[in-house]
Amino acid sequence: MNNATPQPVTLTSQQNDRFISGWAVSGLLLLLSLVVLSWAVVLSGERGSRCLMYSEQCSAVLSSALYTAFFLALLAGITALVWPRGRGIHFRAWTVFVQWGALTMLGVLILSGA
């Protein structure tokens, strides 16, 4: 019978890099589909249709806020991918966190116009 105390599982630096890269790639792949699907939901509603056809009841969300969130998510994802592996793991993790925050904000801003 083995009474050894279990040791906590820790990730190596290489595993952390792969984990961060996976989330960055996932965010970049999700970016365009999030925008397209969110706009499809907005435009399929009555308010979105009236905005598209007659320019009435359009969203009050500034387009600059949408562009800022989009490009922030894009830039943060690319930065996390091109940053040298093994250095600045915390920086890469924060850029992925910012990327996913900007993705979430972009979806919320687009859907708030529905």
Structure description:
With 114 residues, the protein is an all-alpha fold. It is built from 4 helices and no strands. Helix 1 packs antiparallel against helix 3 (63-82), helix 1 (13-44) runs parallel beside helix 4 and helix 3 packs antiparallel against helix 4. The chain is elongated. Helix content is 74%, strand content 0%.
**For the CA atoms, what is the radius of gyration?**
20 Å
Helix content: over 70%
H/I helix tally:
4
Q: What is the first-to-last residue Cα distance?
A: 63 Å
Number of strand elements: 0
Report the uncertain regions. none
Shape: elongated
Q: Into which percentage range does the β-strand content fall?
A: under 5%
Q: Main β-sheet, in a few words?
A: none
Name the structural class.
mainly alpha
What is the string of SSEs from the N terminus onward? HHHH
Give the gist of this structure:
This protein has four helices and no strands. With 114 residues, it is an all-alpha fold. The mean pLDDT is 85.
Spell out the key features of this protein.
single chain; mainly alpha; 114 residues
List the helices and strands and how they pair.
Blueprint: H1 13-44, H2 46-54, H3 63-82, H4 89-111
